Amino acid sequence: MKRIITVFLIAATLLAGCAAPAPATVTPSLPPATGTTPAAPIYKDASQPVSARVDDLLGRMTLDEKIGQMTQAETNGLTTTADDVTAMYIGSVLSGGGSIPSNQAQDWQALVDRFQDRALATRLGIPLIFGLDAVHGNAHVYGATVFPHNIGLGAANDPALMEKIGQVTAAELMASDVPWNFAPVLAVPQDTRWGRTYEGYGESTGLVSSLGAAYLKGLQAFPEGYTPSAGQTLFVLATPKHFLGDGGTAYGSSKQNIIRPYLLDQGDDKMDEATLRALFLPPYKAAIDAGAQSIMVSFSSWNGTKMSANKHLLTEVLKGELGFKGFIISDWGSIDQVSGDYYQAVVTCINAGVDMNMVPTDYKRFISTMQTAAANGDIPQARIDDAVRRILAVKFELGLFEHPYPKLDTLAQVGSDAHRAVARQAVQKSLVLLKNDPKTLPLSKDTPLIFVAGQAADDIGMQSGGWTIEWQGKTGAIDPGTTILGGIQAAVKPGGTVLYDRSGQFDNAVDAKGKKVSVADVGIVVVGEQPYAEGVGDSSDPGLSSVDAALIDKLRPLSKKLVVVIVSGRPLVITPQLSKIDALVAAWLPGSEGQGVADVLFGDVPFSGKLSYSWERTNSQLPINVNNLGSKTGCDAPLFPFGFGLGTDDPPVPIPNCP
Asked: Is 70 exceeded by the pLDDT of residue 34?
């Protein structure tokens, strides 16, 4: 999803205020009660089947109320006009990345409840549904449990663990009264130059299908001890995204420019339908089979046609062939990209199968456009009714009509020891050992002297990456947790010395006995990428920075054994440095529990992770993956292939000496 950039939102909000007023409509009253004791409407009776409740409610709704249900506005756009939720019957609100009331769970709860108050004040009292992107834990909240990004979870490849992660994330979301998560990402990235590579579990369709379905089950399942309402089938609503072809866009095909020009993100999938289906459709089939009730459409295009406008894929394939019964939501303002004529864009996308429009700020224009299109007959009443029926059914299945303010006693679970233990286990399982010369790893806890260098060694924000507190993420101590350095320091036994300098300056190093030292028994350099998200992270040349490359060179003569740990959202070219390194570890973006990295480095937990992406030898090989590798061998093959990962007892793997 495209996220918050303040200047854009202010401008969009001003434009929204200039939209034409919504035409007046006749609002029918509820049917008069018969007898002395009015019977509750069927839609308010939790003992009735969901289908009957939907039919009853839909039959009572005006056109304006139906269009409101198809509208999702963003919190910033509603901050000073929250009464529009009531006046315009808005059915959903989201908070984009960085759009936060504060960083505390209870303040999120107050925000959500404030909008819910407005929704329940409408004539029919239809509760709204509030959503956000908790893509690696509810990382909008300060102190929440932040899991490794999906690239690391793909390397761990543990479906049972994925279910646990879904359950933890759901509990921490519901602590803020948020019942809707825009996850899991079911992208199958084919080109690691894409800035969203870390949001994908891997380049393999089967891997993504397995892990995405497992996470979805955990997110939507009722926790132990929770008693659902009659007819409630969902705890937290998952949203597999982004349908379809996410991760397959061609390099250079994007036309988007936000903060910087994009290269792949929101670009064009240039392939035939057979390829599109084979690579990208199975994860959605698996998600639907696992109970998906909401799916988000991709920003991207397929052979020049925006996905939001593709009736064949949305209606014929997703809703028809795959039998999807839930509702389809657009991505952040993506309908606007379909045509320069906004009216035509709305008509095309709604008729194509989009049920709810993530506006996010210009909701007045969308609502008035829908009203006009319906009046003109350009959007049939049957299409509107189908969309609203799907949305209402999910709200009933979430139990929102009975519990619009969940108020579950889960605040104490946010960032709890039990939840962090799950995240730490995920870190442990995600690490991939790429190189290990004899007697390097695991490290001894009795090691007398260890030099640690690199910004990523002691930076929670850097090890968490994008989608952490802010959309693009941020470096520094932005969240509680343990750093990789902290984990190393905790692992070494008393009497050992761990010295840290970000830039590797150890000229005046002194050990635990006060003796000046110049060479460490072990040097650990933690290198990696600065935080980024979406197309801002698109890169023509993913590799080590010149600073990190120089740091490896600096630590080599200062270390008897040199270990390099890479903190990154994708494979980074490291071929020129490889011969200088005794052990190389891919730690991905581990999140808040950096101590899990040290657990594996020091042998408390064995290495078990396997690459979920091919690791390129040079960037001239990109895109390179299991789906296009063919018979490439030797210097034409990846430096480390998909599925590669050593154990500490494995012999070194010979690496071709290529020019």
From this structure: no
**Sheet-wide strand order for 305-306:** 268-269, 301-302, 305-306
**Structural tokens at position 92:** 């959903």
Residue with tokens 């442990």: 428
pTM, entire model: 0.94
The vertex-427 CA angle with 426 and 429, nearest 5°, equals: 65
Q: Please, what is the angle between helix 417-430 and helix 159-174, to 10°? A: 150
Sequence length of the chain is: 659
DSSP 8-state symbol, 458: G
Structure tokens at 29: 């009253």
Q: Give, in order, the Cα–Cα distances in Å from 268 to each of 252, 332, 648.
A: 9, 17, 42
Tell me, yes or no, if 417 is annotated catalytic.
Answer: no
Contacts of 494 (CB under 8 A, 6+ apart): none
Whole-number mean pLDDT of the chain? 93
Provide the pLDDT confidence category of residue 77 given band limits of 50, 70 and 90.
Answer: confident
User: Rounded to the nearest 10 degrees, how much is the dihedral formed by the CA atoms of 432, 438, 443, 448?
Assistant: -150
- Strand 129-132 with 92-95, pairing: parallel
d(C-alpha 56, C-alpha 514), whole Å: 80
Amino acid at 641: P
Active-site residue 65, yes or no? no
Say if residues 590 and 485 touch (Cβ distance below 8 Å): no
Q: CA torsion angle for 78, 81, 83, 84 (degrees, to 10)?
A: -70
Phi (first) and psi of residue 95, to 5 degrees: -115, 125
Task: Give the helix/strand (H/E) hosting 424.
Answer: helix 417-430
What are 496's strand-pairing partners? 494
CB 449 within 8 A of CB 499: yes
Of 248, 352, 351, the residue nearest 300 (C-alpha): 248
653 CB burial (10 A radius; 0-12, 13-18, 19+): exposed
DSSP lists the bridge partners of residue 510 as 516
Q: Tokens at residue 492, please? A: 């070494």
Residue 442: asked if its preceding bond is cis (omega within 30°), the reply is: yes
Type of residue at 487: G
Helix (H) or strand (E) run with residue 390 in it? helix 381-397
**3-state secondary structure labels for all residues of 176-241:** CCCCEECCCECCCCCCCCCCCHHHCCCCCHHHHHHHHHHHHHHHHCCCCCCCCCCCCCCCCECCCE
Instruction: Report phi then psi at 316, rounded to 5.
Output: -75, -40
CA 476 to chain centre: 21
Catalytic residue among 191, 265, 331, 582: 331
**What domains appear along the chain, each with residue ranges and CATH number?**
65-412 (3.20.20.300), 431-636 (3.40.50.1700)
Task: Please give the pLDDT value at position 409.
Answer: 83
Three-state secondary structure call for residue 92: strand
Instruction: Round to the nearest angstrom and report the end-to-end CA distance of the chain.
Output: 41
The one catalytic residue among 199, 336, 470, 534: 534
Pick the closest to residue 66 from 353, 382, 359 (CA basis). 382
Q: How many helices (H) and strands (E) does the chain have?
A: 20, 18
- In whole angstroms, give the CA distance from residue 74 to residue 95: 6
Spatial neighbors of 215 by CB under 8 A, at least 6 apart, are 162, 163, 165, 166, 183, 184, 238
Q: At what angle do helices 273-280 and 282-289 cross, to 10 degrees?
A: 50
Q: What is the pLDDT of residues 204-235, one digit of tens each?
A: 999 999 999 999 999 999 999 999 988 999 99
Whether the CB-CB separation of 457 and 486 falls below 8 Å is answered with: no
- pLDDT over 90 percentage in the chain: 87
